[in-house]
Amino acid sequence: MSKNPFDLTGQIAVVPGAGRGIGRACALALSQAGADAALVERSRKELDAVAKEISGLGRTAIVRPQDVTRVSE
Predict the structure, then answer these.
(1) Which of 32, 35, 65, 73 could bridge across to 13 with cysteines, CB 3.0–4.6 Å?
(2) Using CA atoms, how far apart are residues 10 and 28, in angstroms rounded to an integer?
(3) Is-contact 67 73, C-beta < 8 A?
(4) Edge-to-edge, what's the strand order for the sheet holding 12-16?
(5) How does DSSP assign 2-61, residue by residue?
(6) Would residue 58 be called left, alpha or beta, if left means φ above 0 and alpha means ψ between -120 and 50 degrees?
(7) pTM of the entire structure?
(8) Residue partners of 57: CB distance under 8 A and separation at least 6
(9) Boundaries of every domain in the chain
(10) pLDDT confidence of residue 5
(11) What is the pLDDT, as a whole number, of residue 1?
């Protein structure tokens, strides 16, 4: 049996609002569980900081500055 019942190794998590608050916490928790992450947030600076933390966990993070409330962008 796996030591970690919440093993996400080989998975990719798409996390909107990943630059701060609950989104940031979710992105980090999912990465700690083994997932790589696609991070979405309006502020690139905040996303870059979270991506650096995720990289420190040995996972890959893709940064996508985007306002998810605007369809045309």
Answers:
(1) 35
(2) 15
(3) yes
(4) 12-16, 36-41, 61-65
(5) -S-TT--TT-EEEEETTTSHHHHHHHHHHHHTT-EEEEEES-HHHHHHHHHHHHHTT--E
(6) left
(7) 0.86
(8) 28, 31, 32
(9) 12-65
(10) 74
(11) 47
CA angle, residues 47, 18, 44, in degrees to nearest 5: 25
Token readout for 17 is: 């609002």
| Adjacent-strand bridge partners of 61 | 37
User: What are the beta bridge partners of residue 15?
Assistant: 39
Q: What is the pLDDT along the chain (73 residues), one digit of tens a residue?
A: 456 678 999 999 999 999 999 999 999 999 999 999 999 999 899 999 999 999 999 999 999 998 888 876 5
